[in-house]
Specification:
Elements (H helix, E strand, L loop, with lengths): L12 H8 L3 E6 L6 E3 L2 E3 L8 E4 H9 L3 E4 L6 H13 L10 H11 L7 H24 L13 H33 L2
Antiparallel strand pairs: 1-4, 1-5, 2-3
């Protein structure tokens, strides 16, 4: 699928997922492995059945090889996401979610669906949360002001989506403000 022109100058969703894959996640290893050094750091040792924290990219690799079970983050469950959906639909502000929740959830649901309880319900809740947050973003951007835009608790993917529009809109507002100031000075001189 081709990206819209407005997103081609931004970071792509797969690139955001790559960045998110550096986050640590807990696993239950099914194999023993000594501490291993990588460019991003040293991880291990892995000793079954003791849990270990490793980057998502490494956990995904081990999961593909059936050498671990991934323990989903505390927030990746039906109860937490239902609570956040209620907050999103009943309050004007964005609810607090992990900064890279969309990317991490996608990675884990794609690879470790069998390690997550109710993955279909979680997918549905994530989609509903995303739609509610997108509606709030659009509403917030309609109220854009040249001096301030306050959208606290936006997440990585959401910031990336609105960045191209926001940059263009602020450029247009700056141009309009500058033209209005120039006209006002011109009328004052008469």
């Amino acid at each position: 699928m081709a990206l819209p022109v407005s997103l081609r100058n931004s970071v792509t969703p797969p690139e955001l997922e790559l960045i998110a894959s550096e986050q640590l996640v807990e696993i239950v290893p099914l194999i023993a492995m000594e501490r291993t050094a990588f460019i991003s750091g040293a991880y291990g040792p892995l000793r079954p059945p003791t849990k270990a924290k490793i980057p998502i990219w490494m956990a995904m690799n081990l999961k593909f090889k059936k050498k671990c079970h991934i323990v989903p983050p505390d927030w990746l469950n039906v109860e937490f996401l239902q609570e956040r959906l209620i907050q999103e639909t009943s309050r004007p502000e964005f609810s607090q979610l992990p900064f890279r929740f969309a990317e991490v959830a996608k990675l884990l649901l794609d690879v470790a669906q069998d390690d997550i309880q109710n993955p279909d319900k979680i997918r549905s809740l994530l989609k509903d949360i995303r739609e509610a947050r997108q509606a709030k973003s659009r509403e917030g951007l309609q109220k854009i002001d040249h001096s301030e835009l306050s959208l606290p608790n936006l997440c990585s993917m959401e910031i990336n989506e609105i960045r191209p529009f926001f940059v263009r809109a602020m450029g247009v507002l700056t141009h309009i403000t500058r033209d209005a100031a120039t006209e006002a000075r011109g009328f004052d001189g008469l």
